[in-house]
Write a structure and sequence with these properties.
9-stranded mixed beta sheet, 4-stranded antiparallel beta sheet, elongated, alpha+beta, 25% helix
Amino acid sequence: MNIERYLTEHRQGTPRQILRLLHQQRVTVNDNVVDSPLLTVAKSDQVRVDGMAVTGRQPQYMVFNKPIGFQLSMDPTSAHSLGILLNTLDQIRPLKALADLPKEASGLVLASDDDHFLTDVDLQEWVSTLRVQLTGEVAQLPSLEGDITFEDIQVVPDTLHQLTTVTVRTRDLTVAVPTLMALKGVNGPVSRVAYGPLPLPVDLSSASYRGLFPAEIDALNGPLDSNLSTSHEL
């Protein structure tokens, strides 16, 4: 069978991820780098990804709903960190979080034991969607309108509950989070409710996590190189 099918059957990622692995020259067969998905491999061949035999590499891709005040460390012995949320099996994996959400904020955080995945996602420079509630009805927030930190601002007053929901889109969390926290009448934490194409799953309660679905992984990785896509179609 060809190397693409071989890696798929050995659960090395989605089809698009496998093409990306080959394109990034992370796959070897008998110690030779392979970049074509059409190469034929035999059972006797030694196939490795990132230097590890494919039977020992089943990468994990996860999305967390981080509680406010939690750090992004994956150390299961560290208090108030994502690591203490992990189940026993996941605690032994060398997981890392995409280190872009301040501990003062809550919401969507990505984590994986695939460093290349985290790097690829980070390079996409996805927009984060942040949300915060204010006490009382507010029609507009002039202090945000002129701030180039924010690409889009939505202010939705709730007359019934006397609250206002503010939703913004930004690429600069280091400025955006403290700016939102400083708004008058803040009622609760600033929460990231979407990251690029990935919304925070509605069924993912605070302090919980789940694995990413293949379509979510592919979307976060961004488009494949056009030349690579063409070679795959041939």
